[in-house]
Amino acid sequence: MTTTARAQEAAQRANTKVWTIDAVRNLGATTDIETAGAILGIGRSKSYELAKNGEFPARVLRIGRRYLVPVPSILTLLGVE
Fold first, then answer.
1. Which residues of the chain are under the pLDDT cut of 50?
2. How big is the chain by its Cα radius of gyration, in Å?
3. Which of 22, 56, 63, 71 could be bridged to 50 by S-S, CB 3.0 to 4.6 A?
4. In what side-by-side order are the strands of the sheet with 61-63?
């Protein structure tokens, strides 16, 4: 499976999944901007727009052309230690 195919599969899961705290914790150290947006109830396009403008509500790392969001940053935003 290619990286692009994995990203598309993750995006499809993100749009239909109910996010629990345990599910967020199990994402690993970082997640893509689409998944982070889905967790926070933000759509794909809006997530990218906010990240591009430095307005995404959680910390965003720009690595090359990718936007990654640290999972601990999402948990902190959600009020979970």
1. none
2. 12
3. 56
4. 30-32, 66-70, 61-63
